[in-house]
Design goal:
The complex is a heterodimer. Chain A folds into two domains: 215 residues, no CATH class; 275 residues, no CATH class. Chain A has 24 helices and five strands. By secondary structure, chain B is mainly alpha-helical. Chain B has one domain. Chain B has eleven helices and one strand, in the order ααβααααααααα. In chain B, α1 packs across α9 and α7 packs antiparallel against α9. Chain B is globular and about 60 Å long. Chain B starts with a helix and ends in a 5-residue tail after the last helix. The mean pLDDT of chain B is 89. Classes of the chains: A mainly alpha, B mainly alpha. Chains A and B meet through α15, α16, α17, α21 and β3 of A and β1, α3, α4, α5 and α9 of B. β3 of chain A pairs parallel with β1 of chain B, so a sheet runs across the interface.
Chain lengths: 671, 319
């Protein structure tokens, strides 16, 4: 029943996309229609997902449709894991559509956005419901292509075409890896239905190959280092609510693909799987945030933070694999819960931040933070929403980002019980990188919020900004409320996740509902516990106490005066700290190692009047190491194959003849 | 009845940290002055400063936003809550289940985040330089702190401060190299977090050498008073934390016995005095570092923390 409802909603989405092609002429009407339909479908699917998650232990619902490959059909399945990701996808889809209701009227080329937006949503929903390899890959590719079309919506903007090209290459590469992974899982008999794969788990060697291919395929879509290069180019290029969907939701669909392949289909893990995933996660977390710190494009900064948060999620997943391989069910459930809760939390605050960035972009036309500033006065509500999102992503209590990172730390603190020495030594080091990335993320968001919303406006656009529309604000504040809620009563959310752990690991955390006052206790009471609700109450009481004492006894006088600034205030906003100068100390500390940062100051000789100049050069080591050689080889090959094009007909014929002879000889030797 | 007593104990500790914090700051200042053969301010000067500040008019920059006025209270409230969750003279804290050590560290992170934003609000260059350097220092101090937490949790099997204190006071610990390393790392982190010499100088207003003072440069009057009190509280918090984690002796463990409580309070004050004395001695004997030497200092703290944790794996202790 639930699946029928879901598939009809997906059908509605697809039909909306087709109608939008026809109705692109009526700009306002088409946009309202598309986003309203997406909003309604999202709400329905969200509630179906929630009820399925609540009822999950009772077993999965399956549905086979006679479409697709004739001998296979299309299988769909709704179990706890897909129900959870269904919630994540449709919550993101719901808020993005709500935002779209306001944003749609500002869109310059609606014909390039409206047909693909519902198609993109439909594709993501199909991926999490698919129950055979063919349907999964088809939906995955559909999702990739729809999002590619959305990335190319504003294809005339500088660099967007290149972003789309790299995205298309990486997406095809990822799908190829997944195709091979499913091929290995299906075996020579070709049992492509997931139930057939589950019935015949692969041998250890094949399973390891499947893990590697899953890391390549799902990891490239999720943005795992070093496969992340397309992400910070493509995510910011799309319209902001699509960026929110891509960063907040599509990367989570990729995480779903990884979990489905590795936890569900590939059979019991080996302990070194955990070590590998942990290493990649740790590297993504630190490199993602360091790259983010160097950005001054607001949306690109957010995209790099997605890389960081995907790293945090994979740290949790790696821990879960390591614990599971050693038969530590409870610890594995803790790590998996931490990872999935971070999936949920990240989808909330990353959508929120991208919507906020979209509001800023709409109001000022600027993504470059060096030309913004002072927006807290011109756009107070957007500023509050963006501030809440910044605090959440920086893992500050009492917001939700903190809870999932705290749970990840708790899982890390159990790691000394692991028997393998490599893991014993690796996990504390990964814990340190997690703490480093959390602290750097806080620094990065002080920079992002400070440069965009605080200080004095650095340009005319920032000076004349105005608050964004109501629908966009509503979307943002729905997300703010959810961020707070998940931070204050995390126990409810942890309990909701329990069926997923039960399904994948056969273990779950103790029900958190039994503890008084919404306290969460991951393992045992004397070990660690956290209560966000009481924490916020006490913080509020403390602030109220201070304010009351001040109000009662202190002077109320307040005088506005020019800033003091040690006696040298400067009227020009150019003398403020910029995003670049804010990141300079951190660049000095980490930059020479990670970016080969090179700084040069050219000072004119005394008495000369030309300006002094500061040059900064950063290199992207990941690009230089992994991608530049490939690019070089392809270019080299292309250059040399070019000569073939100017050959004479005789040369072509001899080439064909030679090839045929060579192939025949190969065939003869083979037999 | 027991709950009432626990509540009373909790509130007593909360009041105690609030009252003692300025005294500790004054104590360190006076000691430092005397070590430099100056007469120094009276012991109670910080209280007088606070009273004076709250009676004065606030002079606020013309373009300061609402955030600027809210931040002092946020900083105070989060620091105060963090400080009241650290066991001082008794381990029985009713509210200890709200937060473990990681949450306390993160709460201080929230305070720092708020203060760094306030530093950027007016749009002056000094506020920016302070915020930017503060976040750089924090990004290095937090991993080191987590390694210390890891070491302690490995030993005590808990990140709950009361459990850690009870365990470390017990007979199962013995003398451990790891604990000594963690203690050194913890002291280094505490120095950095509290903006003390050699990382930052709390007494300076020489522009280019200040970090914490640069962030709060524009604050005045009652706002400044609240921030100053929060800074004192943070110093006291770190001293209580070190006392609770490394020298928990004398603390009243899971009891309401009046004698034990009095003993606990006495030993707590003694430990604070000792800590203050050592801080003053250290600060008098050291020169401030250049800003870009700080990564070396905190990197050493991180390495010590990591070594402490790894040594525990190899050692065969009674635990």
């Amino acid at each position: 029943m639930a699946l029928t409802v879901l598939l009809s909603c997906i059908g509605v989405l697809l039909a909306t996309g087709i109608v939008a092609v026809a109705g692109a002429g009526w700009k306002g009407l088409a946009s309202n229609l598309v986003y309203a339909a997406a909003l309604a479908a999202g709400a329905v699917m969200l509630s179906v997902g929630l009820s399925a998650l609540a009822a999950a232990p009772s077993g999965a619902e399956t549905l086979d449709l006679p479409v697709g490959l004739p001998w296979l059909g299309a299988h769909f399945r709704l179990d706890a894991l897909s129900a959870f990701f269904l919630v994540v996808v449709n919550l993101g889809g719901f808020t993005a559509s709500l935002y779209g209701l306001g944003y749609g009227n500002r869109e310059e080329s609606p014909g390039r956005v409206l047909p693909f937006f519902p198609a993109f949503l439909a594709g993501m929903n199909l991926v999490v419901l698919a129950d055979d390899a063919f349907t999964f890959l088809l939906s995955w590719e559909f999702m990739s292509l729809a999002s590619w079309a959305l990335v190319m919506a504003h294809h005339r903007v500088h660099d967007n075409a290149r972003a789309g090209y790299i995205y298309l290459l990486m997406a095809s590469f990822g799908t190829l890896a997944l195709l091979l992974a499913f091929g290995l899982l299906a075996g020579p008999a070709g049992g492509y239905a997931f139930s057939a794969i589950r019935a015949a788990p692969p041998s250890a060697g094949l399973a390891a190959a499947v893990l590697a291919l899953a890391l390549l395929g799902a990891g490239s879509k999720a943005g795992l280092v070093p496969l992340h290069v397309w992400l910070p180019l493509a995510h910011p290029a799309a319209p902001s609510h699509v960026s929110a969907l891509m960063s907040g939701v599509m990367t989570k669909v990729a995480v779903y693909g990884f979990v489905r392949l590795v936890f569900d289909l590939a059979g019991p893990p080996d302990w070194w799987w955990g070590a590998l995933v942990l290493l990649l996660g740790g590297a993504s977390a630190v490199l993602g945030v360091l790259y983010a710190l160097m950005q001054h494009d607001l949306k690109r900064l957010l995209a790099y933070h997605t890389v960081e948060n995907i790293g945090i999620i994979f740290i949790g997943l790696g821990l879960a694999l390591a614990f599971r391989a050693n038969g530590m069910g409870l610890a594995a459930a803790l790590a998996l819960t931490a990872a999935l809760l971070h999936v949920f939390n990240h989808s909330l605050f990353k959508s929120l931040l991208f919507l906020g960035a979209g509001a800023v972009l709409g109001a000022t036309g600027e993504r470059d933070m060096e030309r913004l500033g002072g927006l807290i006065r011109r756009m107070p509500l957007t500023a509050i929403a963006f501030l809440a999102g910044s605090a959440a992503i920086s893992a500050l209590p009492p917001f939700n980002g903190f809870v999932s990172e705290w749970l990840t730390f708790q899982a890390i603190l159990v790691s000394p019980k692991l028997p393998q020495w490599l893991l014993k030594f690796l996990v504390p080091a990964v814990g340190a990188t997690l703490a480093l990335s959390a602290a750097l993320a806080a620094g990065c968001f002080v920079k992002a919020f400070g440069a965009t919303f605080l200080g004095r406006p650095r340009g005319a656009a920032a000076q004349q900004a105005h608050e964004t529309d109501r629908a966009s604000l509503a979307a943002m504040f729905v997300l703010v409320a959810l961020c707070l809620l998940a931070g204050l009563v995390p126990g409810v959310f942890i309990d909701a996740l329990a069926p997923v752990g039960q399904q994948l690991l056969g273990a779950r955390l103790a029900p958190q509902g039994q503890f008084a006052w919404f306290t969460i206790v991951p393992i045992e009471d004397s070990r660690s516990s956290y209560n966000g609700l009481l924490l916020i109450v006490f913080i509020a009481l403390g602030a109220w106490l201070a304010a009351a004492v001040i109000h009662r006894w202190a002077s109320h006088a307040l005088r506005r005066a020019p800033a003091w600034d040690c006696g040298f205030p400067d009227a020009s906003p150019a003398t403020q700290y910029t995003a670049g100068s804010f990141a300079q100390p951190i660049r000095r500390v980490f930059g020479s190692l990670v970016f080969r940062a090179y700084e040069r100051v050219s000072m004119p000789a005394p008495g000369r009047t030309e300006p002094a100049r500061f040059h900064l050069r950063l290199r992207d080591l990941v690009w230089d190491t992994f991608y530049a050689p490939v690019q070089g080889i392809v270019d080299f090959g292309a250059d040399h194959l070019n000569k073939v094009q100017t050959w004479t007909i005789r040369a072509y014929l001899s080439l064909v003849f030679g090839t045929v002879v060579a192939l025949l000889m190969v065939l003869a030797i083979w037999h | 009845m027991a709950l009432m007593a626990d509540l009373l104990l909790q509130f007593a500790q909360m009041a105690l940290v609030l009252l003692l914090a300025p005294l500790l700051t004054g104590f360190v200042r006076t000691l430092k002055a005397q070590m430099l053969r100056r007469q120094g301010p009276p012991l109670l000067q910080p209280y007088r400063d606070l009273l004076k500040l709250i009676r004065k008019e606030v002079v606020m920059a013309e373009n300061a936003s609402w955030l600027y006025r809210v931040v002092p209270y946020v900083v105070f409230a989060t620091t105060f809550v963090a400080a009241s969750l650290v066991p001082t003279f008794a381990t029985r804290l009713v509210f200890s289940h709200i937060a473990d050590l990681i949450v306390i560290v993160a709460l201080l992170g929230t305070a720092r985040f708020a203060l760094a934003l306030a530093g950027l609000d007016i749009g002056t260059s000094f506020g920016g330089i302070g915020s930017s350097r503060e976040m750089m220092i924090a990004s290095l101090a937090e991993p080191a702190m987590l390694m210390i937490v890891f070491t302690l949790s490995l030993l005590a099997g808990s990140t709950q401060l009361s459990s850690v204190a009870v365990f470390l006071e017990g007979p199962d610990v013995g003398l451990r190299v790891s604990l000594a390393m963690a203690l050194v790392a913890m002291v280094m982190v505490a120095i950095a977090e509290n903006a003390r010499i050699p990382i930052d100088n709390p007494a300076t207003h020489l522009e280019l050498t200040m970090v914490h003072e640069a962030m709060i440069l524009e604050y005045s009057g009652r706002h400044l008073a609240v921030i100053e009190l929060a800074a004192s509280l943070k110093l006291l918090l770190y001293m209580s934390l070190i006392a609770c984690m490394f020298v928990p002796w004398g603390m009243a463990m899971r009891t309401h016995d009046a004698v034990a409580l009095a003993l606990g309070a006495g030993s707590y004050v003694l430990k604070l005095a000792m800590g203050g004395f050592l801080l003053a001695l250290f600060e008098t004997g050291t020169a401030k570092m250049r800003v870009f030497r700080i990564p070396d200092f905190l990197g050493a703290a991180l390495m010590l923390g990591l070594l402490a944790a790894l040594l525990l794996f190899v050692s065969r202790g009674p635990a």
